[in-house]
Design brief:
10 strands; 9 helices; 6-stranded mixed sheet; 237 residues
Amino acid sequence: MLELKNLSYIIDEDKSQKDILKNISTTFKKNKTYVITGPNGSGKSTLVKLIMGVLSPTGGQIIFDGKDITNLPINERANLGISYAFQQPVTFKGLKVRELLDVASGKKNSVDELCDFLSLVGLCAKDYINRPLDDKLSGGELKRIELAMVLSRKTKINIFDEPEAGIDLWSFDALTKIFSNLKDCTNIIVSHQKKILEIADEIILLRSGEIAKQGSLQEVLPLIENRTCHKLRGENE
C-alpha cells in the first residue's frame, strides 16, 4: 500500500551536511497499525513529515497504491487518502468545532455523526459542536478535536505524530482504545509509550536516522529496554 524506497533526508548544518534519515526502506500494509519509535533525534517525526509531504526528501521514493507521490504537494496526498495529525494541534480560529469537522469530512454532518466522531475521542458533542476554536480550549481538548477531525475524513492512511503529547491520563487510555478500534485503515503512529507500542502490528525502531529493527513488540522491546539500561549505566548512545 505504502512503500518507502531508500528514503533519505539531509540538511546543511554548520557548513557541513547532516544525515537525518539514511536510505529508509520499508512497506506499510493495508489495515495495519505501525508504531515508529526510537530515541530523540532519531528521525521519527522527520520520517512521517516526508510521507505527508510537509518535508521533501533529498533521496529515494515514496510509493502509494502503486503511484509515485515523492514530489506531490500535501493537498494532493490528502486527496489520495492520507491524513496527518501534528504533534502540536493546528488551530483554525474563527471556525466552530462542527464547521471544522464538516470541512475535514467534505460534507455536512448530522448531529448524530458529529456525536460519533467526538465521542470516539472522549468529548460530548452537546458541549463541543458549537464551541469556537479559540484559546479557551485546552491543549488536550484541541488534541482530541484534531483526532476527531482525522477520523472524520475516513482516509486510507492516518499519521499521528506523538498523539499522547499534552493529554491527561484518562485521555491517554481513551486514545489507545481509539487506535485499537481503527481497523479499516492503515495507522502510522510516532510514540514512545509502551501502551501504544502494545497495540501495534509492527514496530519500527529508528536509531541515528536508520531502521535498527522492524518487527513485533516481542522482537523490538528487548532492544529498547537494553538500550535504556545501557544509557542508565552511563554508556554512550
